[in-house]
Amino acid sequence: MSAETEAGAPDGSRFWEEMPPVQRAECHDLRGLRARLRNLAADDHQARVDLRRLRATLRLVREGHRRLEERLEQVVWSQNVSLILHAALAVFCCLSFCLHLSAGYSGWRTFIR
Predict the structure, then answer these.
(1) Cα(83)–Cα(27) distance, rounded to whole angstroms?
(2) CA 72 to chain centre
(3) Backbone angles phi, psi at 34, to 5 degrees
(4) Is the Cβ–Cβ distance between 21 and 29 less than 8 Å?
(5) DSSP class of residue 103?
(6) What is the mean pLDDT of the chain?
(7) How many Cα atoms within 13 Å fall on the side-chain side of residue 21?
(8) SS3 of 104, please?
(9) CB 42, CB 32: distance < 8 Å
(10) Cα–Cα distance for residue pair 76/69, rounded to 1 Å
(11) CB atoms within 10 A of CB 9
């Protein structure tokens, strides 16, 4: 290498001149490929960052879904209890009305007139 620089070959320019054009094109393609690989590495880093963001968002969505599901279970339980209490109240009212009618309570007749 030092013999070439002493002979006056500046930075390998003779190397490119001696190389056939087809091989030169292949070398230039390889240089372009290197640049694309660097870009892919940068894109890969960006994809990893995007994947981390996606995982964090998914984690938040799952946590929100879990809390929403717990709240929904509480609401359904409350509705069931309310339904049972209202049904019991309706039965109690019907039974008390029937008992008043069967006991001969005449207060209804006087109330209507």
Answers:
(1) 81
(2) 20
(3) -60, -45
(4) no
(5) T
(6) 76
(7) 0
(8) coil
(9) no
(10) 10
(11) 14
